[in-house]
Amino acid sequence: MWGLVPLFWPLLKPAGAIEILAHRMVWSLVVVGVALLALRRWGWIRELLGQPRKLGLIALAATVITINWGLYIWAVNAGQVVEASLGYFINPLVTIAMGVLLLKERLRPAQWAAVGTGFVAVVVLAVGYGRPPWISLILAFSFAVYGLVKKKVNIGGLESLAAETAVQFLPALAYLLWLGSRGSAHFGGEGAGHAALLAATGVVTAVPLVCFGAAAIRVPLSTLGLLQYLAPVFQFTLGVVYFHEAMPPERWAGFSLVWLALTVLTWDALRTSRRTRAEAAALRLSAATSAAGARTAESATPPATATKEAETAGATAATEATAATAPAAGPAGPRGTTRPVDAPKV
Fold first, then answer.
1. Using CA atoms, how far apart are residues 333 and 311, in angstroms rounded to an integer?
2. C-alpha–C-alpha distance, residues 132 and 87, integer Å
3. Buried b vs exposed e over 140-167: b needs ≥16 C-beta within 10 Å?
4. Quick check: bond before 14 cis, omega within 30?
5. Which terminus of the chain is more solvent-facing, meaning fewer CB atoms within 10 Å of its CB: N or C?
6. Which residues are within 8 A (CB) of 208 and not within 5 positions of it... i.e. 6 or more apart?
7. What is the mean pLDDT of residues 303-319?
8. 45, HSE (Cβ side, Cα atoms, 13 Å)
9. Distance (Å) of CA 281 to CA 56, 69, 272, 274, 285
10. Predicted pLDDT of residue 330
């Protein structure tokens, strides 16, 4: 869905990027509110209001995603789809770099190679563009921060989006009302179809973000990162094939370096994931083998209590055998004796 969304934003012209962004915020809350009402999921609101730290993180997420949304809409409508796609290509590399800088994570050699190659790619693209690819960098950093904050908030995708759009709603609505008071608003002024498309920004925004928010707390980050490559691949293809954006040799060189870095990163992630699974399976097998060996040893070696019980049973049997050789009591007296029998062997 994110890969195909560049086809949608040009349909909203002549509305500008900020007006489209404001509609996106307002209508997203409407869509999410209807979904929550249908599902009757309201209990999380009271719990969230009692956690100031989470509220602060949600406000940060709303701010960061606002920057991301607004810049992306402007880039697409300004004919910069390819550079926008580059932002999502380098997003995994930026995420890794943030892990080193902010979380003090240690990188494997392959990850260092991927990050270094990505840095070289940005330099090559900067030379090719004649400026740093600032659209790509802002999109990459903003979305990386957004993913990190979503991971820390750790609430459902629908609930998280509802909270974020609630933060955005009042400023966006105020801006739209201000545009209307000046006669500059395009909602309704371009016909019912255009108004419906502006309202549809809520659906276009909510559905993929709910999916992303739900995946962020359920899917391993390595898998999530791999799946995110699909969106920029679609965007890049649309930029070159559909929008016919220029791709001079130096731009191809920069993108090729980015793709090389992502290939190394993907290979390393898959190799590490397989190794981790193999080690975990070996540990489980070792634990199961040890437990089975312990049970076998217990069944083969009788405990001390069982030995005592066997000795007691043997003594009882000997006593009964001795009693069998004694004279039988009764009126016959001494003549009522029985022939001695051999005592059973114990």
1. 36
2. 12
3. bbbbbbbbbbbeebebbbbbbbbbbbbb
4. yes
5. C
6. 1, 2, 5
7. 50
8. 11
9. 40, 43, 14, 11, 6
10. 40
DSSP result, 277-331: HHHHHHHHHHHHHHHHHHHHHHHHS--HHHHHHHHHHHHHHHHHHHHHTSPPPST
The packing angle between helices 134-153 and 201-216, to 10°, is 60
pLDDT tens per residue, range 121-179:
989 998 888 888 999 999 999 999 998 888 888 787 788 888 999 999 999 999 999 99
Rg of the chain's alpha carbons, rounded to an integer? 37
Give the alpha-carbon dihedral of 201, 203, 208, 212, to 10 degrees.
100
312 token code pair = 């007691």
Q: What is the identity of the amino acid at 265?
A: L
- CA 101 from chain center: how many Å? 21
pLDDT of residue 338: 41
Report the alpha-carbon distance of residue 5 to residue 8 in Å, rounded: 5
Is the pLDDT confidence value at 266 over 80?
yes
